[in-house]
Amino acid sequence: MEIKVVVVGASGKMGKEAVKAIHKEKNMQLVGAVDTYQVGEDIGTVSGIGSLGIEIKSDLANVLQETEAKVMVDFTNPDVVFGNLLTGIENGVNCVVGTTGLSQEQMKQINSLSTENDVGVLIAPNFAIGAILMMRFAVQAARYLPHVEIIEKHHDQKLDAPSGTALKTAEAIMEVRENFRQGHFSEEEKVSGSRGGDYDGFRIHSVRLPGFVAHQEVVFGGIGQTLTIRHDSITRDSFMPGVILGVNKIIDKKGVVYGLEHLLED
Ligand SMILES: NC(=O)c1ccc[n+]([C@@H]2O[C@H](COP(=O)([O-])OP(=O)(O)OC[C@H]3O[C@@H](n4cnc5c(N)ncnc54)[C@H](O)[C@@H]3O)[C@@H](O)[C@H]2O)c1
Question: Residues 45, 97: one domain?
Fold first, then answer.
């Protein structure tokens, strides 16, 4: 049986990619598109693949109920994603979440609610396989080279900083790295913020410029050497195999799965 999927944030950059990817899948059926922008337009036309007969609507609860969706894929923004997830879970819909910026507290609440309601919620700060590997290799390196800084670069329309990927990388490095403050003890910022954000004693730097999609370097320093582990998403279709995998696998889960790597290892 086909998995019925609704895309939320369907008119956005990632939403349109998700619409195209889901439409191509043989075992999935795109049944709805939700956005507050381009309401009433056909999502196929908006995504550049020709009319699909699916109108963009703004009332998420109604769309989920009318379409009897099994999964909703959310690529919206940090201010609305939590509310969307509450709506999805209350309607018994599994969720695949690409939107970044959810707080730890919000994730805890989503975990309790989705477990109680018997639905799965995948929260994946990065759906690109190369980015998952970059994070994994960075954690391995941090065991031997504890002096580290993260530099992430995104397009200038991104709302949250640092990126969800940088935060997840930092959390994972923190698990294996002895906590100490890097740099000179009396270093002084002549321009506020120039040393980046302090995360458990090491620094995260966020670059925002037109032209970037999603890029991250994890730079390690040791005596007489440096090691850089770098990943670049050059186009947004790099994220789509991960989104499709998430839709296929989340329907058999309960509660929150934080990170695509947990489904890759199934
Ligand atoms: N997990 C990943 O691999 C990954 C990759 C790229 C981007 N992202 C994240 O995905 C999110 C979306 O990124 P984007 O570049 O597509 O942004 P975008 O601004 O292009 O798209 C967001 C869309 O959400 C819509 N929206 C806003 N409020 C809404 C609401 N209440 N209901 C429905 N739709 C609503 C907007 O109208 C817009 O069309 C961001 O949080 C970004 O960081 C994640």
Answer: yes
